[in-house]
Design brief:
Blueprint: H1 2-26, H2 37-54, H3 58-62, H4 65-89, H5 98-120, H6 124-142, H7 152-170, H8 178-201, H9 212-227, H10 231-243, H11 253-278
Helix pairs in contact: 1-2, 1-4, 4-5, 4-6, 5-7, 6-7, 6-8, 7-8, 7-9, 8-9, 9-11, 10-11
Length: 289
């Protein structure tokens, strides 16, 4: 048994090292030669996906504290790299710099791939927290006037990643405090509305439109997210939705109906409680009576 356990421990250690190395190379954070970087990145991503799906030792590996810490470090590096590259856009004299756009899209692709990986590792909250923290900064850059008519692929891809975050929060995969959920929603909802409106105005042949599937995913996640908020926060968001010019999207009528029903039920319970508290209690009859 001691020999068997030593063999098991050695095999597990080897699997852990392979997994961590693959994670680093899969997200362009490993040390690789430039001419082999894309090939290594693709191969490493395939290796991670294979291990997560088919390696019988992987449940023990991803439960290891060292693996979790190293994975979180990689995630932090990817987000930092992506944010820095995006900010460099508005500092660049040539806004149509193809190499810079390529690097940004690669970092965003790494983030999207990492989302799927963290979901399988039960570390999705790390992704959602990072995305929430940088959301305001991302929108400051992407809504810069110099980017109004360029980089549509980047704009749509940002909404696709945001959709995954909204789904994770809206459907309860990741639990955040109410104030964080409200901030996430209020940060992205105006931009998503605007992009949907612009997308609808584009010709049918325009390659960078919000697809029907993406629109449905975003709308469903937002409805679920709104419906789970405290009543006052729901009221604020629904009031803004009703008064918005792009009231057609996302359609929050289902969330509005749920809010109305719950509000009426709460009011009815309150009225009943007040009525019971103000109704005098009849005095007990005396024995002589």
């Amino acid at each position: 048994m001691p020999i068997f356990l030593d063999i098991q421990e050695a095999e597990l250690s080897g699997t852990k090292e392979v997994f961590l190395s693959a994670i680093r190379y899969a997200t362009s954070t490993g040390d690789s030669l430039p001419q082999f970087e894309d090939d290594l990145r693709t191969s490493a991503q395939e290796q991670v996906e294979f291990m997560l799906e088919d390696d019988e030792k992987i449940p023990l590996v991803i439960a290891d504290d060292e693996v979790k810490v190293e994975t979180r470090i990689v995630v932090s590096k990817i987000f930092s790299s992506f944010e820095n590259e995006l900010f460099s856009l508005i500092l660049e004299p040539d806004i149509a710099n193809m190499e810079m756009e390529k690097n940004i899209m690669r970092s965003l692709s790494d983030l999207e791939w990492m989302h799927n990986t963290l979901l399988k590792m039960d570390l999705m909250k790390d992704f959602v927290t990072h995305w929430s923290n940088i959301s305001s900064n991302l929108l400051k850059v992407i809504e810069d006037k110099r980017l109004d008519s360029v980089m549509w692929d980047l704009k749509i891809k940002l909404i696709e990643v945001t959709s995954k975050v909204l789904e994770a929060v809206g459907y309860g995969t990741v639990v955040l405090p109410a104030e964080s959920r409200v901030e996430l929603l209020k940060t992205w909802l105006p931009y998503i509305r605007k992009m949907k409106s612009l997308s609808d105005e584009m010709e049918a042949a325009f390659p960078y439109k919000m697809s029907d599937d993406l629109c449905q995913c975003v709308e469903g996640a937002i409805v679920s997210l709104v419906s789970a908020l405290p009543s006052n926060d729901q009221a604020d968001i629904l009031a803004d939705w009703i008064s918005a010019e792009q009231v057609q999207y996302p359609d929050l009528s289902e969330a509005f109906e749920i809010w109305c029903y719950r509000t009426k039920s709460a009011q009815r319970r309150l009225d009943e409680a007040l009525t019971e508290s103000t109704t005098p209690t009849p005095l007990p009859l005396s024995p002589s009576t």
